[in-house]
Design goal:
Aspartate Aminotransferase, domain 1, 14 strands, about 15% strand
């Protein structure tokens, strides 16, 4: 290979937008508006327009976004929040941190997203909210989730940290942007995300005016008016330099998504004829923005395959090797090994390959040829 293969090539991406990014950062430095206002307000409004949502609340990171969302809903200790067991820890982490009860739910083998049948069975009189995670870049079944939420009077907080830009088509033909269909949506701008900054960052979305006011206050030490604290709050904000970077990259988000989709299509075509490789399933109601391209391995030694790829200069990652119910910090008498068979199976067989905006045909061919050679 003439160029090093990376899971995400942020440097290559930066080179193409370098002048715009540098100009935006320089503008922040010269303005000395480092916190709030300026570039943060510009980015907020531009993202609201992109998503078609009434309120975007920029915050410090995606985990903060989830925590602030829960804090604004007025839930009480012991209230149950349903979330998938096959995901990144943040969803359960913020629930537990607030003294709420995370109730874990198995997932769908095809799409990796929360199982609707398992979700229905997990509801109790203590259930107050659902956090569906739109994992790897496509939506969970929002028709069913919103119907369940209405029937049981539950809040829906979408974890859109991996799916910004994905579009959901409801059964009636209307469309929804990721994070903008439930009561609240949350996203992360971690550098490797499809829309990523050059540090930490996140945002909250809502169409509810009252919730927006409260979440802005909670994110700002509980203040609506300076030095008057109406709520117990936190200090979480997106800084102006990160907003400047994001405002540039937002203009290219759709093209970034299209490039990732092209890479995924090439992978699909290369791998779909091999029984040992199960390509990512698709929710027909959702576009897929491919934050990750994740294969399921069938009767293959994952460790040996990773070593083979690494020897060829091809990185790979396992997202996620341990489901939440088996994590040491979340071991619970209510769960036993085997209670979530799909999540446990996925944790043992998934493998994510490089996918990003700078991949060229030579890199894709090199990756696919070397993986197939292992078979």
């Amino acid at each position: 290979m003439t160029t090093e293969i990376q899971m995400v090539d942020l440097k290559g991406q930066y080179q193409k937008i370098k002048q715009e990014v540098n100009a935006g950062i320089q503008e922040v430095i010269e303005s000395t508006t480092f916190i709030k206002g300026g570039k943060v307000t510009d980015f907020q409004h531009h993202l609201e327009n992109y998503l078609g949502v009434k309120h975007v609340i920029p915050v410090g990171n995606g985990t903060d976004a989830l925590q602030i969302a829960l804090m604004a809903l007025g839930l009480k200790p012991g209230d149950e929040v349903l979330t998938p067991t096959f995901t990144f820890i943040a969803t359960a982490e913020v629930v537990a941190l607030l003294g709420l009860t995370p109730v874990l739910v198995d997932v769908d083998f095809g799409t990796f997203n929360i199982s609707i049948e398992a979700l229905k069975k997990a509801i109790t009189p203590k259930t107050k909210a659902i956090i569906p995670v739109h994992l790897f870049g496509q939506h969970a079944d929002m028709d069913a989730i919103l119907e369940i939420a209405r029937a049981h009077n539950l809040f829906v907080i979408e974890d859109a940290c991996q799916s910004i830009g994905a579009i959901y088509t409801f059964a009636d033909g209307t469309k929804g942007q990721s994070g903008c269909m439930g009561h609240i949506g949350c996203t992360s701008f971690f550098p490797s995300k499809n829309l990523g900054c050059y540090g930490d960052g996140g945002a909250i979305f809502t169409n509810d005016d009252a919730l927006a006011v409260k979440m802005r206050a909670v994110a700002n030490h509980g203040m609506e008016v300076r030095y008057y604290h109406d709520y117990v709050g936190v200090n979480s904000r997106l800084d102006s330099i990160q907003a400047a970077v994001l405002d540039v990259k937002l203009k290219y988000l759709d093209s970034y998504i299209q490039k990732r989709q092209q890479v995924a299509t090439a992978y699909d075509q290369a791998f779909s004829r091999y029984d040992q490789l199960i390509i990512p399933g698709r929710n027909p109601s959702s576009t897929h923005v491919f934050h990750q391209y994740t294969l399921k391995l069938k009767e293959l030694d994952r460790v040996a395959l990773q070593k083979h790829l690494q020897a060829k200069g091809i990185p790979s990652m396992v997202y996620y090797p341990v489901p939440l119910h088996m994590q040491k910090a979340y071991l619970n008498d209510r769960y036993r090994k085997g209670d979530f068979p799909v999540a446990e199976q996925l944790s043992a067989c998934v493998l994510s390959l490089p996918i990003h905006t700078e991949m060229d045909e030579e890199q894709i061919q090199y990756i696919t040829n070397n993986l197939i050679a292992f078979l």
